[in-house]
Each structure stands twice: as C-alpha cells, then as structure tokens.
UniProtKB/TrEMBL annotation:
<feature type="domain" description="USP8 dimerisation">
    <location>
        <begin position="6"/>
        <end position="107"/>
    </location>
</feature>
<protein>
    <submittedName>
        <fullName>USP8_dimer domain-containing protein</fullName>
    </submittedName>
</protein>
<dbReference type="GO" id="GO:0016579">
    <property type="term" value="P:protein deubiquitination"/>
</dbReference>
<dbReference type="InterPro" id="IPR015063">
    <property type="entry name" value="USP8_dimer"/>
</dbReference>
<dbReference type="Pfam" id="PF08969">
    <property type="entry name" value="USP8_dimer"/>
</dbReference>
Length: 315
C-alpha cells in the first residue's frame, strides 16, 4: 500500500485542470465551473472525501490558472467573477480541511493493511527451518539473565510483533561514523504492532557509555523528534561491542532486540533476547559471554518482520 502522503500527492496530481477551449463562451465556462463546484459539494455531503477533494482542487486551479488565460477574460460578467471568487475561497478552505481528514484516513488504512499482512503471515506462512548456524544463548549481565527467544517459545512475549525497517542497515551504515557505531532503537505502537521508527546513535567512548542511562530514560533530550516512543533495543556494528553490555545493564527491559549491522555488509543480524525468570535458569546450562552473540543467526521467529523505514538521530 502506498504511503499516505504519496496518496495525497497522487490525488493532487490527478486533479490538475483541463485546458479551456478559447472558443467556449465565458458564460458557458462559468456554468461548467459552477457544475464542478456543486458536484464537489454533493460529494462532500455524502462523505465521499476523495472525490470532493479532487473536484475542489480542480475548481480552484481552473478558476485561478486556466480561466485568466481565456482571450475574453477581461470581459467576464462582474457578478460571475465575484461569485467565482467567493466559491474559490470556500473551496480552498474545504480542500484544506479534507486534506487533513484524508491524511488521517490513509494513515489508518496503512496501519490496518500492515496488521492484516502480519495476520496473513501468521496464518499461511510456516515458521522457517532453523538455521544450522543459529545457537541458543544465555547471557549473564550483572544480576540479569537473558536467553534467545527460541528457548522461551512457550512464554508470552511482550513484543508480540516487531516490525524492523528494511532500510535500517543502510541508514545505520550511511549516517554513522567511526565514533558513532552504537544506537538506541525506539518504536511506536500502531494497533497491535510495534514499528521501529527511530535510532539515536551515541559514541562508544567511556564518557558517553557512562551517560547511557540518561539517554535511555530521556531520548527527547537528544532528539526533538523522539517523543513518547518505546525503547525496543539497540543497534551496533558488532556484538562484541562493550556498549551492548552497558546498554543491557542500564535498561530495565525484559525483552531486548539487538540488531547487528556490519559496516562492510548492509545486512542485519537480529537477536531477540528474553529476560529469564530466576527459577527458569538451569544450572546445567553454561552462561555464554557476549562475544558468543556473533555466532547467532538472525531471529527467524515470525514476530519480527522487516518492513517500513527508520529515522536516524545523533547525540
């Protein structure tokens, strides 16, 4: 489904006025314009916003752009001219109002479409076979123990559906420098889906890492765009980065999505980590070090879906 803003742009483009015949009398042109305006009003009263919006735009563009080009425009009836001016002002106001309503409607339709596609995936797409390179991990970070989501498959995930941007890798590589190779991943809750929408990158020097907790608790202090977002996890260039350990230790998340983007390859490895209950930790399992994350393959559970796009921000 097209982006809501693009759908509006397409409506505007399709509403461009037709060229007026110079042989058509002004009185006939005036009546044709009144018919367009009345039809727009009728569609608006029936709540057919797309058609009404398109006709209002065509009426305004014809009156302001095409009509003055008519060879006899200077001889137009004064009453007709004043009437067209009044209707044009009203048409502009109505079109602006409908544009806002249509944008809301198209956004909701886009969200519904995404949710429907996800439901269809769950019903018709079997879980892919586990990669032979994937391993189950248990990580001990301070007093917290995390494991990969496949181990906790019988548990109820908080992140029932996470949509990861399919341009995340390219954006992260393009917009980060050697000093900015770690990012905090934030998202928005849209219906039943968490969509990753923002990455805030931070330096990996000791001073920046020591400030990690402040960044986590107040992302808006670093980016004016980030408001009321959900912290999902982190993005890094290597799972051996000490920033991951600092991030996990500072966060209060029970579930964390770690995304590794290799600078030389615009590909993502996604690890979904779940905090294990104290009584779920098995003493027979050996706790893995963070460096072992590099051995893990991309999370293949259906609850993580690549899609959409992502906004980059830098501290």
């Amino acid at each position: 489904m097209e982006d809501p803003a693009r759908r509006i742009s397409n409506l505007v483009r399709m509403s461009q006025p037709h060229k007026l015949s110079p042989d058509l009398p002004l009185t006939r042109l005036y009546q044709n314009l009144i018919n367009i305006y009345d039809q727009a009003e009728a569609y608006a009263s029936e709540n057919k916003c797309e058609r009404a919006f398109s006709l209002y735009l065509r009426f305004v563009a014809t009156v302001t752009e095409e009509l003055p080009k008519h060879m006899n425009y200077n001889g137009i009836n004064a009453d007709h001219k004043n009437d067209l001016c009044r209707r044009t002002i009203r048409a502009i106001n109505e079109a602006e109002k409908m544009k806002r309503e249509l944008l809301k409607l198209f956004t909701l339709e886009s969200q519904d479409y995404l949710a429907t596609q996800i439901d269809m995936d769950e019903k018709h797409k079997a879980k892919p076979p586990e990669s032979p390179n994937s391993v189950s991990l248990r990580l001990q970070i301070g007093s917290k123990t995390y494991t990969t989501c496949d181990v906790m498959s019988n548990s109820s995930f908080l992140f029932q559906r996470i949509v990861i941007p399919n341009d995340l890798a390219e954006n992260f590589v393009t917009h980060t420098t050697d000093n900015f190779k770690f990012g905090l991943l934030y998202g928005k809750l849209l219906r039943r889906v968490i969509v990753a929408t923002h990455i805030i990158t931070t330096k990996t020097d000791e001073a920046s890492l020591a400030n990690m907790k402040k960044i986590i608790n107040d992302p808006a202090s670093l980016s004016g765009e980030v408001t009321e977002l959900i912290l999902i996890g982190c993005v890094c260039s290597s799972f051996e980065d000490s920033a991951i350990e600092r991030f996990i230790g500072a966060s209060l998340l029970n579930e964390i999505v770690c995304v590794m983007v290799k600078p030389t390859e615009k590909k993502c490895s996604i690890i979904h980590l779940i905090k294990t209950p104290d009584d779920a930790a098995s003493t027979s399992q050996q706790t893995s070090k963070l460096t072992s994350l590099s051995e893990a393959a991309t999370c293949e559970n259906l609850h993580i879906t690549p899609s959409m796009s992502c906004t980059m921000g830098t501290s």
